[in-house]
Design goal:
Number of strands: 5
Mean pLDDT: 77
Strand content: 5-15%
Distance between the termini: 24 Å
Transmembrane segments: 20-38, 180-202
Keywords: Membrane, Transmembrane, Transmembrane helix
Domain HD-GYP: 212-407
Largest sheet: 5 strands, antiparallel
Oligomer: single chain
Strand order of the largest sheet: 2-1-5-4-3
Protein name: HD-GYP domain-containing protein
Organism: Zoogloea oryzae
Radius of gyration: 43 Å
Length: 431
């Protein structure tokens, strides 16, 4: 069925804390990562813009004359311009891409060789080429600025290579770190603010779910008991057969979810008898073939009664198929072997066993040994042999505890079973 609900306030707090904590952690990591990359991109763009502005200082009339002259006259002017900015190096090219000047300051020879080997990217007029260059541990900015003459013609290029000073690098790191931490902090703070609201909503949702589940269980108990009282004069049959079914399912290692379906189906297995005329249902003697045919319609009638109830969809397989036989001679569908759902095969064994060992208006109860012999004899034809064998192992102990228990004790045991398989903190009294 549905995922188990928290059974205590501590479990409720724990579940919400874990889930909200995981969600907040994931969102914080995503937000922090996005902020990190955004701030890194912004810092890099700011550095590129700064390097570009510095490179533009060299696109001066003096530089235009130097390039136009085709020889390195005016070096003093270039040196003066170069001293104004912090550059690793500077190269000047004419319009054909031939170098006419370079100055690498005090840079290492190995670094200069790498930078000289960089192919010149020649942007169009009014465009600038800029990029990052990684050389060892150096993170450098490479900018190429076109130089135009007085007549607007492209006369050459200035290529500058610069590095960020320590203060700028530290400022960028601080900016990136601050942005990422701000994003993470905002997510965590939001999670703390939302926690009380989400806890209240979860409590309300849990209460409503429990109330709905309580109502469903109370309804099937009441309906099942009403049919049992009409058929056998007592509701103890439903309690006994349900407890037998739970014990057998546990012995077979059936999942808790399937056992919950088994419990619901056990209580409503004969709900279709509501549609059987009393003259047939309450007849003390043997039924005629025509009457038997009518009686055998109760599984179909029961299925029709619960059709449309999603909560009883799985339980309906017991209502419809608890009279099927392994050899295909059962009713209403004549299913064979494993065509019969597992929980219906389990219930078929305990239903027959309880019918044999119970007192009815038309018969006395059968003893344990005789009932077990019948179950064993019908194994392979009526019952699944694996299920019948498992029941043989647990039947004596279950029979003693269940048949000797008063109705109130049976109700209490069923109540405990509902707590195990429906995971409810509080259940209404079993009536």
């Amino acid at each position: 069925m549905s995922r188990p609900l928290p059974e205590t306030p501590g479990q409720l707090h724990g579940m919400l804390t874990i889930r909200l904590g995981l969600a907040a952690t994931v969102v914080a990591l995503i937000a922090g990562g996005v902020a990190y990359f955004v701030e890194t991109y912004r810092a890099e763009q700011a550095a590129l813009e700064q390097a570009t502005r510095s490179a533009r200082h060299f696109a001066t009339p003096a530089m235009q004359m130097i390039v136009s002259a085709g020889r390195p006259d005016g070096h003093d002017e270039l040196e003066r311009l170069l001293d104004k900015s912090r550059f690793v190096g500077l190269q000047v090219f004419d319009g054909d891409g031939d170098q006419v000047y370079e100055n690498w300051g005090s840079s290492a020879v190995s670094l200069i060789d790498v930078l000289r080997a960089q192919a010149l990217k020649r942007p169009e007029r009014h465009q600038i080429h800029r990029t990052w260059i990684e050389v060892g541990s150096e993170h450098l900015i490479h900018v190429v600025v076109p130089i135009s003459g007085s007549d607007g013609r492209l006369v050459g290029y200035v290529r500058t290579v610069s590095r960020l000073d320590a203060e700028t690098v530290q400022a960028q790191r601080d900016q990136v770190r601050t942005g990422a931490l701000t994003a993470v902090g905002a997510v965590v703070a939001t999670a703390f603010v939302l926690y009380p609201l989400m806890l209240a909503m979860l409590r309300r949702s849990t209460d409503l779910s429990r109330s709905l589940l309580d109502s469903n269980l109370s309804l099937i108990r009441s309906l099942g008991n009403a049919v049992a009282k009409k058929d056998s004069g007592t509701d103890a049959h439903n309690y006994r057969v349900t407890l037998y079914a739970i014990g057998l399912a546990e012995a077979l290692g059936v999942s808790a979810e399937d056992i919950s379906h088994l419990v619901a189906g056990a209580f409503l297995h004969d709900v279709g008898k509501i549609g059987i005329p009393d003259s047939i249902l309450l007849k003390g003697g043997s039924l005629t073939p025509a009457e038997l045919q009518v009686m055998q319609t109760h599984p179909v009638l029961g299925t029709e009664i619960v059709t449309g109830n999603p909560w009883l969809q799985e339980a309906a397989v017991i209502i419809r198929h608890h009279h099927e036989r392994l050899d295909g001679k059962g009713y209403p569908d004549g299913l064979r072997g494993e065509e019969i759902p597992l929980i219906a095969r389990i219930f078929a064994v305990v239903d027959v066993f309880d019918a044999l060992t119970s007192e009815r208006s038309y018969k006395s109860p059968m003893g344990l040994d005789e009932a077990m012999q019948i179950i064993l004899h019908e194994s392979g034809s009526h019952f699944d042999p694996r299920i019948a064998t498992a029941f043989m192992d647990i039947a004596p102990a279950l029979y003693v505890t269940i048949t000797q228990a008063e109705t109130n004790e049976l109700r209490q045991r069923l109540h405990e079973a509902l707590l195990r398989y429906f995971k409810l903190g509080v259940l209404p009294p079993v009536v």
